[in-house]
Structure formats: structure tokens, C-alpha cells
Description:
By secondary structure, this protein is α+β, with helices and mostly antiparallel strands. The chain is 38% helix and 21% strand.
Amino acid sequence: MAAATEKKKPNWTDLKWTFIVTVLLVAGFKDVPYVWELTAYDVVKYLGVAVVLLLFWVLEKSGIWVKPEVERTTTPAVKAVFKRYSGRYDNSGNAYQEAFSVLASSPDKSKAPKLFAAYFDDPIAVEAEKLQYIVGVVGNDFSPETLSLFEKKGYEATSLPEGVPCVYTKFPMFHPSINPINIIFAVNRVYKVLYKELPDAKLAAFEICDSDYTHYYLPIPSNKEQEKLFALGYKKME
């Protein structure tokens, strides 16, 4: 007897998106005249509908309806190169682009990059221009030539230990280097749930971005040695 197939649950986000698109298309493109009959008002109306659809699409991809869920796990082994920055967190897209450009001119340019970052200050408690953070690239298998190139550009190399207990969550990543909306959504939602789960955290969370998600790890060192390794790995600027 064949095993019963599991009933697939509906994806409510996709259904919601489909409904919005359908309503806008019906409202905006009903009774469409021939091209040669279009008036200036028609052109503006159809362009307006297209802009609204594009905006909804960007917001959807940027995680507007995503509610991060946390879990307890352990940190992965991370070797990375990073540079230190200060200023508004939503300007970190420029730092992403800088890291990408260095990697693109390196011997390892064909490798899919994974971004690495850590944000040290509470943007509510600290002035925007004094916020401190680091941004770089994960380089577990970078060649010595690539590491040397990054160091010449002002990047530091670090190694974070594997297997340290942590609080973890993830959030959709959608072109953060050119899409500050994605960064704003992530910063305002992810860190709230991380530090709510671990309000007495002694270390900053770090991020690893792949092609689809940003993965957030808030370490919970179980001994002084683990805490020391992380503190040395991406210590805050003095």
C-alpha cells in the first residue's frame, strides 16, 4: 500500500502577494486603450501601477512580513577579513560594495562571496555618527595572495572558534549593498529578538550573508577561553 502523501500547507506570503498583484492589475489595467489612444493621464496611471508593484516586490524581498525566530545552536568555524567603520548603520552598504570590489580583483574572484559583519553599538543609545561596526568577507579557503591583497587595503584577518553556544536567527537578504531598506528591516527586527532572548549578552552578534539569507549568531561563551577568543576576534575599536 502506497504511503499517504503529506498535504502541502499553503504559503500565505505567496498568496498575499498574488492577491495584491491581482487587485492592482485589475484596478490599473482594466479597459486599456490601444497604444495610439493613450493620453498623458493613462501613461501616468500605468506607470504609477508599475511603480507600486515594483515597490511591493522590493518590500516583499526585503522581508517586510518576516518575523525572525530564534533558536539555540553553536557557532560555525569562521575565518574572515574585515575593515572597521564608524557612522550610520544604513551606510554599511558602501562597505559591502568595497569588500566585493576587493574580492573581484583578487585571485579568488570566481568564488561566491559570503559577507561578514558585526555591529557593536545600540543605535538608540549611541549617536549615529559614533556607531561602530565591521564589514568584510568570509575567507575560509582564500589563497595567501587574496589575504595579502585584503590586508594591503586595510582589512584585518580574524578567526572565530567553532562550537561555541549561541542564539541564532536568519533574515532574507536582498542586495543590501544597494538596498538600505533590507538593512533597516533586519537591524530593527533581528537584534530585538536576539537580545530579548539573551539580554545579558557580553559579546556582539556577528553576521554571515549568503545569496539568500543573513545568518545571525549571538555567542554565549561557556568559559573564559571562548569569551577571550571572540573578544580578540572582533574587539570593538578604542
